Amino acid sequence: MRSIIVLSISMLVISPALAQLEEIVVTASKSTGGYYDMPAVTLKKKADFLVQSIQLVNDSRSDVLRSTEIRKTIANLIKSSERINGIELSYGEGFLVPVNLNDDSLQIIEDNKRIDTSYVNVFVKVAIDPNQSTKKQISQLRQFIQGAKLAGRTEILARGDIGLSIIGPEQYRYEILSKIAEENQKMISAVGGTCEIILSGLQGRVEWERTGVDELTLYIAYGAELECQ
After folding, report:
1. Up-side HSE of residue 209: CA atoms within 13 Å toward CB?
2. In contact, 180 and 221? CB cutoff 8 Å
3. 181-193 as b/e: b if 16+ CB within 10 A
4. Are 222 and 201 in contact (CB under 8 A)?
5. How far is the C-alpha of 148 from the C-alpha of 142, rounded, in Å?
6. CB 173 within 8 A of CB 203
């Protein structure tokens, strides 16, 4: 008896650098259809960071002054984060990168709905420490934001609840595949006879679902078909 895995090898080649460097932000809301839409085989992992999305808003009359005060506030946040172990600032849509005030991609946006108002969205995050309670670390993250040194007319607005982020989810691909293969062997042993399992969809990317305060469930959305003679 054997388990047949149907896949394209070329589709499974993932750049090691890409797998290590991609940081994916997971909001408090679910990213897919939930628990019952997951495949049978999954992998639970602690997230790497607790993440709070914030918006820095400024309504000074001058657009130059607005930009200057927002950037100064960001500089203050970065300086404060360097004194606290585990606190970092990032920005991006879905994929996070460290905040760099010299990077042109960090753009301060003019608000089309409010006159003389500019804003920028960034993420404040804390590395999850298994030796501390998640509740304590969430409190630490919120206290850091509340204690921010604001420049001029800059204000901080929290955007949504505390989320999570994970670095390089694709690095867990073969751990998930090993679990799938192990599950298939158990299934074949259970049904007996001359059955085999044909799998599909293994070329898909690793997906994730938030299933705990600081926990993610990773999986590949594969399909399995049992064939018996």
Report:
1. 17
2. no
3. eebbeeebeeeee
4. yes
5. 10
6. no
Tokens of 83: 């004194």
pTM: 0.82
Side chain identity, residue 11: M
Tens digit of each residue's pLDDT (9 = 90 or more) over 145-156: 999 999 999 999
- 125 phi and psi, to 5 degrees? -140, 155
**Burial call 45-77: b when 16+ CB within 10 Å, e when fewer:** eebbbbbbbbebbbbbeeeebbbbbbbbbbeeb
Nearest to 102 by CA among 139, 75, 129: 75
Taking only the tens place, the pLDDT of each residue in 58-113 is 999 999 999 999 999 999 999 999 998 889 999 998 889 999 998 888 889 999 88
Give whole-number Cα distances, 174 to 75, 83, 165, 171, 202, in Å. 40, 37, 20, 8, 11
- Which residue bears the tokens 């204690």? 147
Q: Are 208 and 221 in contact (CB under 8 A)?
A: no
Task: Answer yes or no: are the C-beta atoms of 148 and 69 closer than 8 Å.
Answer: no
Structure token pair of residue 190: 């259970």
